[in-house]
Amino acid sequence: MTRRPPERFDVIVIGGGLTGCLTALRLAQAGAAVVLVEQYDIGTQASGRNAGSLHGQIQHEPFVVEGEGWAREWAPCLGLLKDAIAGWHALSDELGVDLEVRTKGGLLVADDPAQMPAIERKVALEREHGIDSQVLGRDELLALAPYLDERVVGGELCPIEGKASPIVAAPAIAGAAAGAGADLRRHTPVRALERDGNGFVVTTGRGRLAARRVVVAAGADIPRITRMLGVDLPVEGPPMQVNVTEPVEPLVGHLVYYAGGRLTLKQAAAGSLLIGGGWPARTHPVTGRPAVDLEGMRRNLAIARSVVPAIGGARLLRTWCGVNNATPDQRPIIGPVDGIDGLVVGTFPFLGFTASPVMGDLLAALALGRAPERDLAPFSPGRF
Ligand SMILES: Cc1cc2nc3c(=O)[nH]c(=O)nc-3n(C[C@H](O)[C@H](O)[C@H](O)COP(=O)(O)OP(=O)(O)OC[C@H]3O[C@@H](n4cnc5c(N)ncnc54)[C@H](O)[C@@H]3O)c2cc1C
After folding, report:
1. Is the model's pLDDT at 1 over the cut of 70?
2. How far is residue 140's CA from residue 120's CA, in Å, rounded to a whole number?
């Protein structure tokens, strides 16, 4: 029996999260014949399970734990995140959909004077890299955010930060990609990826596809795909959890972080409070899937309440988990893979919701063989 020849495209995008959908959108708009394959439904993994924070500052915990040397190497990410947040604003207009992008600013809150020197050093580094963050004294902080606990001693304002809706984003972007001509194949897991002359053949659960170029945007599953071509990349998938309360009256206008422990706290457009900050979930011993860690949930909520006491009256509705994507140096991997012409990989660890508009632009440009305007050397897949 002869095998049917594979369907041919210019580019195959593997992964239907925000990274993949935005890449497919930009490729289709550029006139490329693009097919996107997603093993489940669009935006159901990290891109649909995250907390929707738009981050534009160096995260405080790694700054303190990993140190300033790490932060200096990570700092090229700041320009990318800044452009990505601008990209979120532009996307709402471009798609004609309210992606609930609100950027009233992020507040990193200290309640111990000993926390302030690290914040001051972090702000100085951010400013060196074009982020207009500022150190705030206690009175300035409380004037901006009177909902904070009286014990605060100061903090940081990062004015570009805020939130967008992960629930609205991926379906809206996927719809736009399909409208622009991208062929989106849901429930189409990639089973094999092979070289075929100077291109690739991808075997999926629903037939074979061929293209000159492949973009791997499979988040935490990137290594599983690239290993099919003998390429090992150190991307991991730590399970994490987020909490949401019932809707309450407008209370928290900013994206609030805490310098003394893990916290992100913000209020969605519908009024619910989203409480997270990188709290690990556990792995269920039977299913092997992420499951809520109750002790982590309790501690996360306790921190949130200590920083913003007024949220204590809001009832918790739900805690959910997702698999994040991580790299050893917390920098993204963006670029062509050395030695495999036409293979492009893209993942932005931990802050990939924020980064996705720029990730889509960059990966599409690389897949079209165009030189991106941004220096991608710090993000090269070959650095490991
Ligand atoms: C709980 C949680 C909270 C977070 N909070 C935030 C936040 O507030 N702000 C922020 O900026 N970031 C946040 N993140 C990180 C952010 O969600 C991710 O970095 C981002 O969504 C990654 O997008 P992606 O498209 O690259 O990957 P994903 O969304 O994971 O998409 C990859 C897709 O590839 C598919 N795939 C994998 N293998 C195959 C295969 N073999 N065949 C076909 N398809 C395949 C997967 O099914 C998946 O849909 C959070 C993450 C988690 C888990």
Report:
1. no
2. 15
From the CA of 18, give the closest atom in ligand 1.
25
Please indicate, yes or no, whether residues 243 and 316 belong to a single structural domain of this protein.
Answer: yes
Is pLDDT at 2 greater than 80 in this prediction? no
Torsion, Cα 8 11 17 22, to 10 degrees, reads -130
Amino acid at 148: L
152 CA → ligand 1 middle, Å: 34
34: nearest Cα among 70, 9, 71: 9
Which ligand 1 atom is at minimum distance from the Cα of 359? 26
Which atom belonging to ligand 1 lies closest to the Cα atom of 346? Answer: 26
* DSSP bridge partners of 11: 34, 213
| Closest Cα to atom 4 of ligand 1 | 50
Q: Which secondary-structure segment (H or E) carries 70?
A: helix 68-74
User: How many structural domains is the chain composed of?
Assistant: 2
Which atom of ligand 1 is nearest to 191's Cα? 41
Coil, strand or helix at 15: coil
Atom of ligand 1 nearest to the CA of 347: 26
Atom 26 (ligand 1) nearest CA: 219
Provide the domain limits for residue 21: 7-47+167-234+329-383
Quick: pLDDT tens for 73-126: 999 999 999 999 999 999 999 999 999 999 999 999 999 999 999 999 999 999
59 inside domain: no
Q: Measured between alpha carbons, how far is 13 from 358 in angstroms, rounded to an integer?
A: 16
Q: How far is CA 339 from the centre of its chain?
A: 28
State the Cα–Cα distance between residues 89 and 85, nearest whole angstrom: 7
When the pLDDT of each residue in the chain is averaged and rounded to a whole number, the result is 97
Specify whether 278 is located in the same domain as 245: yes
Question: How far apart are the CA of 237 and the centre of ligand 1, in A?
Answer: 9
3-class state of residue 13 by DSSP: strand
Residue nearest to atom 50 of ligand 1 (CA): 50
> What's the pLDDT tens digit per position in 179-204?
999 999 999 999 999 999 999 999 99
Q: Which residues line ligand 1 (CB under 6 A)?
A: 14-20, 37-40, 44-47, 49-53, 55, 189-190, 217-219, 221, 225, 240-242, 276, 322-325, 347-348, 350-354
- CA angle (339, 345, 349) in 5-degree steps: 135
Ligand 1 atom 20: residue of nearest CA:
352
Task: Report if residue 154 sits inside a domain.
Answer: yes
